[in-house]
Structure to design on (781 residues):
């Protein structure tokens, strides 16, 4: 408790999530933008705020206030990742930066204050770094302890962007601020009900009583509100630079040229990892183009990446579904390869005589993938769902399966087993006729117009054959609460005269064959 | 060494019998026995090559020449996905990798139901123009490769592919016809049970599996449950024995009532 209080400098970038989204090119800088987290506005741009959008609104209400609002999902990873660039830039000027949250970081004042000749000068130097990066509107607060300094930064104005709270004046500065600033919603609610609305009133409570009533955590918050923030600033250890980057001048507009250019940095990238006794099991490829497009994608590897695997991933990302020698929409100016997951090399050491058949399988599949593209070779996973297409998920070789529907759940209305051996990728139209030659229909109450008697597996209606047995209709009404994905259909099993059984679907008056039991 | 000597002896045995058999060609029972003997000679000669058997489903194994699927051989299956999955199930359960090339409609759920291990099943749904190259690449590493040729290829390519299969010891199953297949499997006379005119559901099926070989001889066939009401693939027992077994209809209707209750 009695540890010395450090003079701290806190940098605060208002609306950092919005700035991060604009920096990676997801939206224009001056557009009214809102980032949504679980249906609630998490952050919004200044243009949106001018229209009345604010944090905590529901999406629908925000859109009602500002019809031109650009709505994007909030990505925490992106926030953290892009703030790293800011911290690196600050570290180049003053050492010992602690990352508090995306948009907020703390520095010990003592060193920079002596170097730049005063606390305010140090703050201005910090702002200069941010302005150089193109991050506008950031604020700096300097006070005793990071908590007070952060409040000081938040109270700085656009005209005076550095606010210095003199040494020992923290309690005075914090006093009139509302109690809601301490980060413990439960405690804030309780204190309000006890009639305590400002930090000064909370700080005035006897420390021993607070400790007895609210425990260790409460006592710490009590100390914060009295300006006695004894938390040290722990500078981050800069991670080793493992990224690989290559720039192309002039920009390259052919896939094979880019792939060739990436080859050497892929070698260096893998060598650097091996130098750190690491292997990469997941990486991210970022591609910048001449027109300002930006594409990024994460790639997983069932074992660990080799240099040629890295080159393949870059090619597949550029290629999309096009051919190897296809031209690109705009020239590629830079490619960055960032390791997302690394592992100690000891866990991935190949045995003296190789690792047997699995390795051979992986090589063969990788070779086929380099012929057909990443999605050309897949493994199948059984998923949950009612339609056969839902129940069968294909995963490109090397990726992890991502099941959105749990196969363990009951899924009432799924087909009775056995499952059909042939599942048509796209259901094809068929004709089902009653004995008098009219088309069989199902009305809205689920009643059949007539028993199906004949059936033609072709869209043209040729090859008409007798139905020897049939069952149905089995109605499936899925997601009726959502107009876009709602689906209402009736399913039938029919056996034709040749003994082949079919799974037929009647949806909106049209018959189609979903699968065949052959 | 002793195996080789045995083989040579048996070859001599049959060699000495062949002229004796040729004198009996006129009468038809004799002709049948000659054909049978010739088939036996061929199968024994084929076994002298280094061809080992891949584990095969017992309901089908005895129909195949040599008593099972052979490594390095090609089999063609007249389009029936169920029959294909039955062929894949046993090797897959024994730990082999299987690849299915050029069949986007392959039903993975049914395959899992027949006992194919999906973790060791690789699909290449749309190889396009490169199906032959993809099939050859798969033959390098996979024990069983299933393919459906989109068009006829030249004999030279076929010969190269079969040489590769023999060298790698992997088995090729072709959906459709193939000029040099070891045997051709087909399915006929399907009879479904558990489904009626507007009630029940598909629960079990009996079908006749017929295997005809390239080398002639009478096609062999057997009546097989594909699948039976407990979703297994078994031989249909002759009527005398099946009286003691579970009647299919009652089990199927029990499944049907379960299903109706669930709906």
């Amino acid at each position: 408790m009695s540890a010395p209080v450090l003079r701290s400098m806190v940098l605060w970038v208002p609306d950092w999530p919005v700035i991060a989204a604009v920096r990676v090119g997801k939206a224009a800088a001056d557009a009214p933008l809102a980032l949504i987290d679980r249906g609630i506005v998490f952050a919004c741009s200044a243009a949106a705020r001018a229209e009345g959008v604010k944090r905590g609104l529901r999406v629908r209400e925000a859109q009602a206030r500002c019809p031109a609002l650009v709505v994007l999902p909030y990505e925490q990873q992106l926030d953290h990742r892009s703030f790293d660039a800011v911290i690196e830039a600050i570290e180049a000027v003053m050492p010992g930066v602690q990352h508090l949250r995306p948009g907020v970081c703390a520095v010990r004042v003592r060193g920079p204050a002596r170097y730049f000749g005063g606390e305010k000068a140090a703050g201005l130097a910090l702002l200069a770094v941010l302005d150089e990066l193109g991050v506008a509107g950031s604020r700096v607060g300097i006070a005793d302890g990071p908590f007070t300094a952060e409040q000081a930064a938040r109270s700085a104005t656009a005209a005076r962007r550095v606010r210095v709270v003199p040494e020992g004046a923290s309690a005075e500065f914090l006093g009139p601020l509302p109690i809601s600033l301490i980060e413990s919603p439960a405690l804030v609610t309780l204190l309000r009900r006890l009639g305590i609305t400002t930090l000064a009133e909370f700080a005035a409570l006897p420390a021993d009583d607070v400790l007895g009533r609210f425990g260790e955590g409460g006592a710490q918050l009590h100390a914060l509100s009295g300006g006695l923030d004894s938390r040290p600033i722990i500078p981050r250890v800069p991670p080793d630079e493992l990224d690989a980057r290559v720039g192309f001048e002039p920009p390259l507009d052919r896939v094979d040229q880019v792939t060739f250019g990436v080859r050497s940095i892929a070698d260096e990238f893998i060598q650097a990892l091996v130098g750190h006794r690491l292997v990469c099991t997941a990486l991210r490829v970022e591609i910048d183009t001449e027109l300002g497009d930006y594409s990024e994608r994460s790639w997983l590897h069932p074992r660990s990446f080799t240099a040629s695997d890295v080159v393949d991933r870059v090619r597949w990302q550029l290629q999309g579904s096009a051919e190897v020698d296809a031209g690109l929409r705009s020239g590629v100016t830079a490619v960055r390869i960032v390791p997302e997951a690394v592992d100690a090399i000891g866990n991935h050491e190949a045995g003296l005589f190789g690792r047997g058949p699995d390795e051979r399988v992986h090589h063969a599949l990788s070779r086929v993938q380099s012929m057909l593209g990443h999605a050309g070779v897949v493994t199948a996973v059984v998923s949950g769902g009612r339609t056969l297409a839902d129940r069968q998920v294909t995963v490109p070789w090397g990726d992890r399966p991502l099941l959105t529907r749990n196969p363990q759940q009951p899924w009432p209305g799924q087909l009775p087993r056995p499952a059909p051996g042939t599942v048509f990728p796209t259901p094809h139209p068929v004709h089902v006729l009653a004995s008098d030659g009219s088309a069989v229909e199902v009305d809205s109450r689920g009643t059949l117009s007539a028993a199906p008697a004949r059936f033609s597996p072709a869209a043209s209606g040729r090859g008409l054959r007798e139905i020897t047995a049939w069952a149905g209709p089995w109605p499936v009404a899925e997601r009726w609460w959502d107009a876009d994905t709602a689906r209402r259909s009736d399913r039938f099993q029919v056996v034709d005269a040749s003994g082949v059984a079919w799974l037929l679907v009647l949806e909106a008056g049209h018959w189609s064959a979903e699968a065949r039991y052959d | 060494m002793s195996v080789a000597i045995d083989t040579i002896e048996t070859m001599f045995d049959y060699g000495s019998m062949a002229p004796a058999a040729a004198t009996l060609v006129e009468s038809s029972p004799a002709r049948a026995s000659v054909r049978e003997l010739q088939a036996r000679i061929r199968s024994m000669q084929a076994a002298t090559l280094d061809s080992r058997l891949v584990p095969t489903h017992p309901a089908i194994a005895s129909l195949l020449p040599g008593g099972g699927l052979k490594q390095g051989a090609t089999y063609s299956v007249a389009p029936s996905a169920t029959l294909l999955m039955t062929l894949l199930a046993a090797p897959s359960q024994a730990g082999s990798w299987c690849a299915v090339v050029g069949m986007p409609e392959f039903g993975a759920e049914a395959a899992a139901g027949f006992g194919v291990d999906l973790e060791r099943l690789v699909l290449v749904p749309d190889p396009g123009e490169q199906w032959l190259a993809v099939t050859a690449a798969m033959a390098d590493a996979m024990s069983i490769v299933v393919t459906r040729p989109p068009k006829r290829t030249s004999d030279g390519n076929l010969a190269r592919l079969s040489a590769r299969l023999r060298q790698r010891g992997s088995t090729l199953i072709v959906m459709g016809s193939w000029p040099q297949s070891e045997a051709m499997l087909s399915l006929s006379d399907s009879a479904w049970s558990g489904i009626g005119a507007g009630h029940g559901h598909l629960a079990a099926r009996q079908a006749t599996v017929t295997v005809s070989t390239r080398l002639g001889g009478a096609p062999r066939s057997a009546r097989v449950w594909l699948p039976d009401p407990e979703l297994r693939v078994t031989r249909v027992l002759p009527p005398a024995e099946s009286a003691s077994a579970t009647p299919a209809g009652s089990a199927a209707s029990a499944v049907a009532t379960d299903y109706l209750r669930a709906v």
